[in-house]
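User: Show me an example of a complex going from sequences to structure tokens.

Assistant: Sure. Here are the input components:
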Amino acid sequence: MERIRLPVLRRVAICGGTHGNEMTGVYLVPELERQQKEKGDAARIIPLTFVVSNPRAVKECKRYIEKDLNRCFTSATLSSPITDETPYEVQRAQELNSLLGPKGSEDAVEIICDLHNTTANMGLTIISYSHKNWICLHIFKHLKDKITNVPVRLVLLNIPLSEAYSLESVSKYGISLEVGPQPQGVVRADIFNIMKQGVDAILDWTETFNSGKVIEGGEIEAYLIQKSMDYPRNPKTGKPSAAVHPQLQDQDYCLLQRGDPVFLTFSGETLSYEEEEPLHPLFINEAAYYEKGIAFHLAHKKTLSIPSIQAETD
Amino acid sequence: MERIRLPVLRRVAICGGTHGNEMTGVYLVPELERQQKEKGDAARIIPLTFVVSNPRAVKECKRYIEKDLNRCFTSATLSSPITDETPYEVQRAQELNSLLGPKGSEDAVEIICDLHNTTANMGLTIISYSHKNWICLHIFKHLKDKITNVPVRLVLLNIPLSEAYSLESVSKYGISLEVGPQPQGVVRADIFNIMKQGVDAILDWTETFNSGKVIEGGEIEAYLIQKSMDYPRNPKTGKPSAAVHPQLQDQDYCLLQRGDPVFLTFSGETLSYEEEEPLHPLFINEAAYYEKGIAFHLAHKKTLSIPSIQAETD
């Protein structure tokens, strides 16, 4: 396979508190900023920007104030006119787009690394757009090699840039780090340490890349989301009438086969997986997804070949 | 030890949603009510009242709207005058006191069984007031004998009735059931099933008691809360500067000895337990306690002897 030359990385942003009750980023971003100041400017070659994305939601320890900020970064929302009725998060998305973008432009930061938590047993999951984003795919490969105390996995969203809705899509090579399980409003030291390992490894990789060293390609596995499953719901109240089955709870990334138990109704009945095709469930029983009508996503697993890359240092 | 005669139990209330984001009770109370209706009135000898305590907080999936409802049941708050500025939860507490109390009166229901969740690894914990409340202590003994798939423990609060602040203190023999770990806003089938086992066992016990059968006494172990520990905090921001140490996280009810690790600062430093006296930590890293300045409570373990009891059926 050919070797691909790519421009050096000029700027990286580390963002936390995009969801105000996902506490690892809320605590890690200020800590990384403090450590950076302590070490002085010489410590990192690539300038870092630290951002608390939704400070009002962080203060109230809520996911968001009026609207999920991490669904506000489509081109349409970023260019919508601001009026007195515009939700806080739409205004904040436009501010962040000015600071870190503009999205899709040459001026946008190269990497936004956005720190999230999930109540699901997802280990360390890298979420990224497009399966030809070599920088993101190489970063995943590096994390997978370096971090062995927790499963490291890659989820790819195949959405055109203009429709990509999350904060990291403002940058050229956006990466969302999801670490779980962690309850909303709680900071666990084990989850904090995994996230810190992840961010440190990403920053180390960017410096290796910028040094001009050839970074070898290879094969990686990615999960591609196919569909979402909602909870069975009471037709009168609209509320869930079942929970995720105990045999499926915490089994994110397993392979569901037809007939496997997926839900247990509150009256004790087991409901089975009825899809023809075996698929991998993820974000199982994520707290924030009840209101979105998602009990879990279902994904294909696919092997991708990625080329060797090298920074254009000359 | 003597045998104590006590009046029969005339009414039992099962309450959920006292905290609107503790989902087991939110789903279990309507399910129990539905099952009760299905079986018809003959199914249970003791009339049951089912209550969703804080319906507004349940609707918003928040712990509370203006004030923690489960701190509003002191005699002072229950008798405070209602004005336009009175928080919703104080009004609701007075409504619930009319429905299930009045607290401290002969008319109060015998048992309020209030269903709670915690993000801490507390298994099934019974919380009750006073170590001479024989009904509550016998119910705990029964649960401990019947439920073997999860640890069952008793926490006793030694607070005079008028100062007792939680919903179950409105009844003559109040019991709070805490099951965890479960994130806020999430319903886990395993936790749901443990809570249902607990409630079913309590209701079975009340019918055995009311039948007039002698219920043998014995010895039980109880945890008595001595003090609370807050997170180390940044003196400038007031925010936690450390998380619970990974070696302590999820170890509720262990015995902490001087020198044991309790916190890990975000910069990586371990802080140790410095109390002279070994104590048992509980509610470790409960999400709702960050705002209350509590990282965990510390308790003594004590063995209590309880007498045989028998209902005054004649």
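The lines above are the inputs; the final block is the predicted structure for all two components together. Chain B has two domains: 3-222+305-311, 226-294.
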